[in-house]
Amino acid sequence: MKIVVFEDSAVWELNPITMGRPAFAITCGTMRLLDILDQLGTGSISFLSRPYLDATSRYTYPEERFHFGASEVCSELESAGPDEKVLLVNARTVPDVKLIPFLKKCMKKAELVCYSWQDVPACACLPAAWLLNAVRMTKNCPKTNVLPLDLTPITEEYPEAFETSLELFDYPHDVVRNHMKLFSENLAYRLKHKVPAQTGNPEKRWTSGQWTEIREGVFVGEGVKLGEYLVTDTSKGPILVDEGASIGPFCFLKGPVYIGPNSKVIEHAALKEEVGLAHTTKVGGEVEASSIEPYTNKQHHGFLGHSYLGSWINLGAGTCNSDLKNTYGSVSMQYKDGRVATSMQFHGCIIGDYAKTAINTSIFTGKTIGSCSMVYGFVTRNVPSFTNYARSFNQCTELPVEVMISTQKRMFARRNVTQEQCHIDLLNQMFLISASERQMENEPLSL
Predict the structure, then answer these.
(1) What would the pLDDT profile of 128-143 be if each residue is shown by its tens digit?
(2) 218, 347: one domain
(3) 399 SS3 class
(4) pTM of the full predicted structure?
(5) pLDDT at 203 over 50
(6) Which domain holds residue 410?
(7) Are 66 and 44 in contact (CB under 8 A)?
(8) Cis omega before residue 16 (within 30°)?
(9) Which residues, 6+ apart, have CB-to-CB distance to 45 below 8 Å?
């Protein structure tokens, strides 16, 4: 059975996380929805994301089994048999490994079904011909940026959906909440099943997904380097160090922890419970209950807790975030439509792709930093994308996209990544999309 992943209009509510990445590529609990669907063993998977992300998605996932954009999806659906069904999955679906048996069960059902999360379509099993017509409509109106699907004609109740943890990300803080909730079970699945991870190495793009236990509860992949005087605590969960990763001397790891391929943990670092690092990251200082996407650097001392960091971020030495209010109360997040209660006592920050912080930057509880922003001093409110933010010094200005394009080129060169036209085009699109965010000058200080 063919699988098609679609983004709906609510994907914009996940900014800045989804400004430069499709929702299926959000890492939560060490897994992405892409990894979950790949475990179904169906071969090809097609993705209907916002059109401006298609080119970079093809660059990031060039494997033949992945298809991106309405044209490629139509080609896949046209090859389907007259009675063939398709599994349709919302890209905002939380990557819980319990979805794997649930989706396999869906694929085996003879009848047409549609399962929802809070009245929003989450996944459906429907005729390929029906979906083909819907996608063709999308091709004729590409400016919509999302698939205009109406699944109500085939909706029917399925009480087991909630028991299998079928859930969608509604807000950025949902990523942090589910990261902690799913971490242990997702990590246990990695140990028992072959789950290849991206390496960031063009010569070997995926790991083998195999592990060797070198001490109680500590599992490593091929080519891992461990420094001397490494202290590990696996009393609450295992520690997985994936292929090509290295850990410096005098480090402390308290499981459950996942260190992605070709990542580097700096000497004297402390990684504590539910830290998940994607490939090619550099991490030092103290980190707790956080998800960090590929190519991000938090190399120096400083605390990061209960947070989500996108890709190509650099945190300057001494950068710290708060993840607990002085009142010990629940953290609320400020979004464009108002304040939203997270029901979380611990919640740190959400930082978009390409953002940078200067030395000794302090990020207050529950703040978001937009993509491609450069931040200095105290972050007491949300920071828009493409902003030079130095509010402590009464300076907040727009960061020209040309500056970020040249910065991206230098960053890529340091990691032996070639800046392609698709990367430049994406930054230009992100700059245009985020233009309405940058209205800051006369707004009151918000703690």
Answers:
(1) 988 888 888 766 555 5
(2) yes
(3) coil
(4) 0.94
(5) yes
(6) 175-437
(7) yes
(8) yes
(9) 3, 4, 5, 34, 37, 38, 65, 66, 67
